[in-house]
Design goal:
By secondary structure, the chain is mostly helical. It contains 9 helices and no strands.
Length: 192
């Protein structure tokens, strides 16, 4: 199309809307409430996200610290500090009653309880001799770790395994089996 024809078409009234700003679509301004404008900008800011991330990390760190401290797993402290935090129980008060409890459990043929008391008696003997520290809430693994460098470690590990099988594993102990277990405990207690 030649330029004259295009210009003549632009001059026609039917095409005047394209050049007349009155026909152009108007932008509608959406008025935001000024009260919500600052809140929206605050919520979209990077500082708020950073604050929540830091708060989340601190919360998870606190939970981890509580779990470790309640289970007495103090990773970043010296051994002397870890020992100071543990609650001491008077083991000397338990020992006279322990032999009585052991003999009554054997008389009642409660071999499960007898094995438990034999193991406790062994732990208290090792504590009294200064070979390990005793705390009622500690695990057998922790006692094994303390006793690891002792020459009778393998025997102690075997006694711990017997104790775990009978007390936690549901291993049935009858009179004959208990006599063998009792001999193992007695032999260990005499050699230590």
């Amino acid at each position: 199309m030649p330029v004259k024809q295009v210009d003549s078409l632009k001059a026609l009234k039917e095409f005047s809307y394209a050049n007349d700003p009155a026909y152009w679509p108007k932008k509608v301004e959406v008025k935001k409430e000024e009260n919500l404008d600052w809140l929206e900008s605050f919520l979209k800011s990077g500082w708020l996200k950073l604050f929540f991330y830091v708060l989340l990390i601190l919360f998870l760190g606190f939970i981890l610290y509580r779990i470790l401290s309640e289970r007495n797993l103090l990773l970043f402290t010296k051994k002397s500090k870890a020992r100071k935090k543990t609650v001491r129980t008077p083991a000397g008060d338990l020992e006279p009653d322990l032999d009585q409890l052991l003999s009554s459990a054997e008389a009642m043929k409660d071999f499960h309880e007898s094995v438990r008391l034999q193991y406790l008696k062994t732990l208290l003997l090792l504590k009294r001799k200064g070979l390990l520290e005793y705390h009622p809430e500690w695990t057998n693994a922790r006692y094994l770790q303390q006793f690891r460098k002792h020459p009778n470690f393998e025997q102690f590990r075997q006694l711990s395994r017997i104790y775990e099988y009978v007390c936690y594993g549901g291993f049935p102990a009858d009179a004959a089996k208990y006599q063998l277990i009792k001999q193992e405990f007695s032999k260990f207690q005499q050699t230590v």
